[in-house]
């Protein structure tokens, strides 16, 4: 079910450049997996904090106010993640934080192998490969299912051993668009290796809602805020108490358990507070929930339902417009009907290079992206025998009319 026209209009009004590119004019933005649109409130908050000359940690009212923002942001992130205990840390980027958490886990965990999958983004897979080697650990990779674009709990259960020390999981693939059953996968790992340190790449998943670390039982979870309605320039992670207790980079004499290095940008903390406030607002629009966490969860469910409806239109058509599944020579990564899909459809067309289709869509005012069989996407495309594909990635502010515009353009391109 999609949002009502009235609510969708209100949602779209809260985002910058929702229907118009500042460089090219009107366009449909279906490149959300490369970086979602930014909340207007984030833009305003960024400007406000960029002008403040004071830093936290000083004995003056401005410094104390900045520290209150930072403390509030950490509490907001913990509520957004539904994480008890542990530490919320802000870093350079999501990739940088994945490297840090995976490195510390590989260097500090008990003896045993590192377990991951071939579906993972190179952010986590590269970190696990490097630091498992540095720590003298075997790096075991589970082969993902090419047909569905997923890796299952059963696949993890078949490979995990009692001595597995570290495990990495991709929550949602930015290439296939499929979400993994995180709680089931962590349950499968814990059933055999209860003490394994589990680190999750949640970067692609975050804007689609539904993060619940209490249910997932992980030790680390990382997101990139620019992919969840904030801006570039920082990443966010949560680390469990036992991961935090391991040795990690820190200044001599720094407070116990502190992860951040140097003075961070208070504006980064402040802008993510705007993201959490937005989920809170949306949850109040789509439900009667009174608690903030309950409203965040309601927003996640509504986002999922809206995006699923748009993806269904894109794949199977709407009104008299044929969907991608009906266009001759078009192949959809992960299959046309896949319940794991989260607002993203990747496809290729026989005999036509994907960049050519992306260019034609651009000329029609539709922003998409080419994924190539390179270090970012080769793990998915090479087993399929494909050099490239077109990624169409939606978010909850996209509309059925925008899907219609995309399908109209695709029918002309396919002809």
Automatic annotation (TrEMBL):
Keywords: Aminotransferase, Pyridoxal phosphate, Transferase. GO terms for molecular function: transaminase activity. Residues 28-406 form the Aminotransferase class V domain. The keyword Transferase applies. This is Aminotransferase class V-fold PLP-dependent enzyme.
């Amino acid at each position: 079910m999609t949002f009502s026209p009235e609510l969708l209009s209100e949602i779209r009004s809260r985002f910058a450049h929702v229907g118009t590119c500042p460089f090219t004019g009107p366009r449909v933005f279906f490149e959300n997996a490369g970086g979602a649109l930014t909340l207007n409130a984030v833009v305003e908050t960024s400007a406000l904090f960029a002008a403040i000359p004071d830093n936290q940690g000083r004995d003056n009212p401005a410094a104390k106010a900045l520290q209150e923002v930072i403390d509030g942001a950490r509490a907001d992130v913990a509520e957004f993640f539904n994480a008890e205990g542990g530490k919320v840390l802000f870093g350079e980027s999501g990739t940088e934080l994945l490297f840090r958490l995976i490195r510390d886990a590989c260097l500090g965990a008990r003896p045993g192998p590192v377990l991951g999958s071939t579906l993972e983004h190179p952010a986590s897979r590269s970190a696990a490969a490097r630091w498992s080697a540095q720590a003298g650990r075997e790096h075991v990779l589970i082969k993902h299912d090419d047909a569905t674009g997923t890796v299952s709990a059963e696949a993890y259960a078949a490979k995990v051993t009692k001595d597995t020390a570290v495990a990495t999981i991709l929550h949602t693939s930015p290439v296939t668009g499929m979400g993994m059953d995180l709680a089931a996968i962590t349950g499968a790992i814990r059933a055999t290796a209860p003490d394994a340190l589990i680190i999750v790449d949640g970067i692609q998943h975050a804007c689609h809602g539904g993060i619940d670390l209490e249910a997932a039982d992980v030790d680390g979870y990382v997101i990139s805020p620019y992919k969840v309605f904030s801006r570039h320039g920082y990443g966010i992670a949560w680390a469990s108490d036992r991961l935090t207790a391991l040795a990690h980079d820190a200044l001599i004499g720094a407070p116990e358990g502190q992860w951040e290095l140097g003075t961070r940008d208070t504006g980064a903390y402040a802008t993510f507070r705007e993201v959490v406030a937005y989920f809170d607002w949306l949850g109040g629009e789509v439900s009667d929930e009174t608690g903030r966490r309950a409203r965040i969860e309601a927003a996640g469910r509504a986002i999922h339902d809206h995006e699923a409806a748009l993806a269904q239109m894109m794949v199977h058509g709407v009104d008299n417009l044929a969907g991608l599944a009906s266009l001759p020579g078009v192949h959809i990564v992960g299959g046309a009907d896949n319940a794991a899909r989260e607002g993203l459809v990747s496809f290729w067309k026989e005999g036509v290079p994907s960049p050519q289709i992306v260019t034609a869509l651009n000329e029609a005012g539709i922003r998409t992206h080419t994924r190539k069989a390179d270090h970012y996407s080769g793990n998915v495309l090479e087993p399929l025998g494909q050099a490239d594909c077109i990624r169409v990635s939606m978010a909850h502010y996209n509309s059925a009319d925008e899907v219609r515009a995309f399908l109209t353009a695709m029918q002309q391109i396919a002809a």
